Every structure is written in C-alpha cells, then in structure tokens.
Amino acid sequence: MSKISPSPTTAYTPSNTLAIPQHWSAEQALAVYELLNDIQAQIWKQYDLQLIALLRPDPDEINDGQLDLFEFDDEIDF
C-alpha cells in the first residue's frame, strides 16, 4: 500500500459527503464539537505561523478588479 503525500495547501479538501450521525444526543454532539475545538486550538498553538503563511493569499494572485475601474493618470501639481 503506497502513501500519497498531499501538498500542504491540498492536504484536506472539504467535502459534502461527510455524514454526521443523526442519532447522536445533544450531549454527544456537544462532546464531539468540544473535542474538535480543542484539536483546532492545539493545532493552531503548535503551527500558527505555518498556518498563517498557508492561509494568507499570495499578493501576486490577488485580482482586485476595483483597481482597474478608473484610469487615474492626472498629473498633480504640488
């Protein structure tokens, strides 16, 4: 069995196929929710700077159409 190592930005792709059991009690659902929050906090605590670097958009890839709305090339006299 071979392991495929995903790239850091594609390690997890959210899926709509994740099925949450419908038979959980409210207490069970809360326990899972709290566990996931604790896991998230611990991951953030350990990898915060690396996660920020991965989540921050690349400035070269930002396409802000607002910048192209007006051609502002008037000379300003000072």
Structure described in brief:
By secondary structure, this protein is mainly α. The protein has a domain at 23-58.
What does this structure look like?
The chain has 78 residues and is mostly helical. The protein has a domain at 23-58. It has one helix spanning 26-55.
Q: What is the topological layout?
A:
Elements: H1 26-55
Q: Would you list the SSEs in sequence order as H and E?
A: H
Cα gyration radius (Å) = 22 Å
Multimeric organization: single chain
Poorly predicted tracts of residues:
1-6
Instruction: Give the DSSP E fraction (strand runs of 2 or more residues).
Output: under 5%
DSSP E strands, number = 0
The end-to-end span amounts to: 71 Å
Number of helical elements: 1
Mean pLDDT: 79
* Class based on secondary structure composition and strand pairing: mainly alpha
Shape: elongated
Offer a few descriptive terms.
1 helix; disordered N terminus
